[in-house]
Amino acid sequence: MRQRRLRSQVWVAPFLALAPTATKPNVAAFSRGSSLPTSTLQAQKSTDIVFVRHGCTYMNEYLGQGPSFGAPYFTDVFRDAPARDRYHDTPLSERGWRQVRQLQTDQPDFVHDVDLVVVSPLRRALQTFHLGLSEWVGQQSPALASARTHPSTPRRHVPIIAHPAAAERLYLVSDVGRPVSLLRQDYPYIDFDTHFTDDPQWWWRHNPVGDGPYQEWRPTGQGQAYACWSEPQHAFDARMHHLYAFLRTQVAGGKYRTIAVVCHHGVIDWMLGQNFDNCQWRRVPWQEIQPAALSIPTTTVRNAPK
What we know:
By secondary structure, this protein is α/β, with parallel strands linked by helices. It has helices at about 25-30, 40-45, 60-65, 80-85, 95-105, 125-130, 140-145, 180-185, 210, 235-250, 265-270; strands at about 50-55, 115-120, 160, 260-265, 280-285.
């Protein structure tokens, strides 16, 4: 949600509590100068990552109507049920649906090459993949397959993995995800097992024992009101390190040549340092992905994703 971005902040998202103890990412292992086998280096040079940002959401539109994020009397507290459904784990708006339908119609060239899809578990990213890209790649149930728009077009069956580290920062209530049990029901063809537990509250939660008293970093003092606590910067940085390490492992294995990551503005900004519009995508050679934040040591974070 680029409209709400502060220039001094880096955008991120919620993550699942998966491990009983914290693990500190091995930053040195991510560095450009790491010593790697020749076969690994060759695999990295021949693998592309395709970043796809989700379509426009109701929260995107809300943030563009004012008051803008951080302005006096800004709030993401919505009391009536229809508004909560629009803004809690915010889905695609009508404009967003049009964007992803156009993405599906355009049939981006990378869909002919992609052999692994990594998708954020937030509703807007899942909807973007489901309507915009699943026509061309991935495993689907017979019912979904029979409803395809282009049934005569060959489909490539590739793994579709939901990964909590690819979600947007828990910044507002729009970034609070849903229980994985519900996600499995809505998207039975997506892998929600490899990187998730059945914890009904999988998004980031402040831990007063390990993290100390919660410190609000969002603008306050002028009537702003927020529906949830936000994910701190150090948790975002650690989680993005995990996502980077996960992608690097897939690349180093040499099995995949084109990996699509359907995610969010903040994730893409961290990885590439670039702004993406809704439904924009870009293919990037793996060796060109060198996030500046990788050189910044991260603090130990409890419940880091595996």
